[in-house]
Amino acid sequence: MMRQAGVFSICRWVLVVLGRMRSMFLFVIVSSFFFATPFAKAASMKLLTPQVGWALAGPGLMWTTDGGSHWKNITPPLRRGEHIASVFFLNAQDGWALLSGTGEKGSDEPRFDLAVTNNAGTKWSIVPVVIFDLNPRQTILEGSGQVDFVDPLHGWLNLDVASSPNFRLAMLIETDDGGETWSRPPHGPGVTGDLRFTSSTDGWLAGGPGNQFLYATHDGSKSWRKVSLSPPPQVGGAIYPTFASAPVFVDGERGFVPVNYSGSPGTPSKLVIYATADGGKTWSPLKVLDESRATSVGQVSSVAITDSILIVPTGSSAGVRASAVPLAGGVSSSVVVSPFALSEISFADASHGWAMADHRRLLFTADGGNKWTDVTPHPPQKPLPPAKPPKWGPVDPITGRPGGSVRPQAAGQSEVPTASPH
Q1: pTM of the model as a whole
Q2: Hey, which bits of 6-64 come out as E strands?
């Protein structure tokens, strides 16, 4: 038994070290790229309305009410060693940020906090994320993940688990009290990817190794099933799917999901838009577009769908252009997609949108993608004030971990103001 425990400890140590080495390697690469260029690097963004949106820039979370001409720093107060892992805004007021940091001294386990705002980041409430039934000997979290909410009470975190890139495992947890307590559903997708819920019962996740799977739940995460989509004959030999994102719904029934299809070397790639009119029970190919360059499994074309219009990149990173394709009429389209021209696209309507070029420049358009303006936010120049540690409540006397088998107290939630704009 002692030998087995020793072997297990060594294996766990190897996994943790490899995970940390991978994180450090990625940090060095990203940091070297960032400081070698004259532009601030926005890692993720979302245009919520034609003028209101948010963007991550360096360690900071930035907010704009004029399309990006001016920015305000709304970064939640971060503790030492903590960073923003994921951001989600339900509308122009209600938002959540998943904060990740190192665990207690001497611990390899990451620590998560959830920052919540109902006034566009003017003030944030910080509450610790406590997972009661997590066994660190069986599940090693990486310190990254995704947050999603459908209302102020019902939300989900999909936390990445240390694993081989061939698996890309994750653990899904959910809350029905705004993040004060979390539980694990009986059966989650078990993989990382793009998570999106449309109601407290209906959710989707596009991900897995190579992003080739789509999962759905219609019973509030009690069960998940893999959604199988048949490729249309127009894709030819490009039969390997990669999901660009989770489905986008315009109402409770009508929705769309973009899928990149690739094949063996030399096989032309295709972008296929599937549509549903019954809440995702059935899907059928609605539009098929050629791509100017071949993609491989795991590579996607960044697209946006709004007002039942598909918006795709059609230029290059040097000459950025986007084209609008109505999701009606015949299956074929004369528009040719440039899959690597833009790394991210977000449109609030058919005219107003953001695009990420060269993975570092945030661009704004007000005419559907014909003309673009550089609105890249610059990260805060002054260090952010450290947040006061939240009150964790009781500590488990056996494991020494916060919370234990006792639910955290409501008083454990602390409200702190946003850092001053810079």
Answers
A1: 0.80
A2: 42-47, 53-57, 60-64
